[in-house]
Write a structure and sequence with these properties.
Elements: H1 2-10, H2 13-17, H3 35-47, H4 52-78, H5 93-104, H6 106-117, H7 127-148, H8 174-210, H9 214-223, H10 231-264, H11 276-302, H12 311-342, H13 345-356, H14 360-372, H15 380-383, H16 386-413, H17 428-451, H18 457-462
Length: 475
Amino acid sequence: MASHAHTSAAQPAILNEVNPTPFPRATLVENNRSFGWVTDKICGIIEGKTPTWWWVCFILACCVASFTVAGITYLVATGVGVWGHANPVNWAWDIVNFVFWIGIGHAGTLISAILCLLRQKWRTSINRAAEAMTIFAVVCAGIFPVFHVGRVWFAWYLFPIPNSNAIWQNYRSPLEWDVFAVSTYGTVSVLFWYVGLLPDLAVLRDRFFKAGNKVRSFCYGFFALGWRGSNRHWSNYEMAYLILAGISTPLVLSVHTIVSFDFAVSLLPGWHTTIFPPYFVAGAIFSGFGMVLTLMLPLRAIYGMQDLITQYHIDCMCKIVLATGTIVGYAYGMEFFIAWYGANPNEGFAFINRAFGHYAWAYWIMISCNVITPQFFWFKKVRENTALVWILSIFVNVGMWFERFVIIVTSLARDFLPSSWGYYSPSIVEIFTFFGTFGVFSVLFLLFIRFLPVMPMAEIKSVMPQADVHGKDHH
């Protein structure tokens, strides 16, 4: 007591008059919506009549997806020669597209797992769709390496399955590491996504049961695994979700690091560099968030979800795109510095050739989209302009595809021996196959929108003022 009196007397009087201002928290669900409104809004997308725009988009997406089916069918019937690969460029669009789609899939697990562990509550409105996007992107990514092996019916040789020929995989090959990394990432992502769906599937089961639709009630009930919302169920659910978040977090970093090893462990100029793992991870997060913005902004406008995906959510995603885009730009600069500082003439030539050689057009498209475009997000007025954010997010996706193209093709086209130099151009089959994967992705995403809750209702309700039983900061 005496000590307290002594301290009060010693400090300046002005400090007794100063009250710290609480840091204002952004509202995550605007317009003071109720729990019931959230449930009706999200379930209404599934329960309502299928809108005309959905059918139009679905048919269009199926038509586009057929390009991949046709391209792959022709490839299997004819041989890998129908792709534009030839010496010296024996890797091209197939690996470019594989790395591109894997990068797109990064944002889902990042938003769900890492932001969950960091207790960033703004993730709740976007994590479900981002997780779904991850799974669909991994499906698209998996198409390319499987068919790149040539005899696709032997693709199972990539897996360590005992066989009668006693042929084992080359575990020292980074391509084999890809098999383990991507399959593990895909499996954990599906589990993480499915566990998060359980409470919402049970809500849909109960609503369809009350509406008298027993078939749909049975279907959702089957996948809800008997969820009743008891205290024990919630306790087990939260523990399982936390464990999966903990497992997923290192996977986010490891999977694209391993993908970068495909290049970094080789001795080819332009590939043999230690900056690739962090550079690839930052680039994957960059492209992943770009795709989340590309998908979520139209969805927000179509379904009138401005109260759930608020300006604060868009603002946060734009800032992450800005941060990761700046890291990517820094990595581009460091590549030139390392090439100069390493004093390796082959390495130096590889980077000068990228910027001013035959593929300079691709390099400067990459720089424009990945380095200049995200810098617009420094300005609040740009972040608040939803249409402009959406357009810039498309540029981010375009730029990240070109980044993979520049890394892979320019290094192979101009290697150590000038006598083997060449110029790669994609064949029509490659173009069709890649174009069709956007259809495959869109078909899966449209089905997801129509039959599953696009947002985690339980998690959104947990960040609303009504969920705070003590009324802290809200009443």
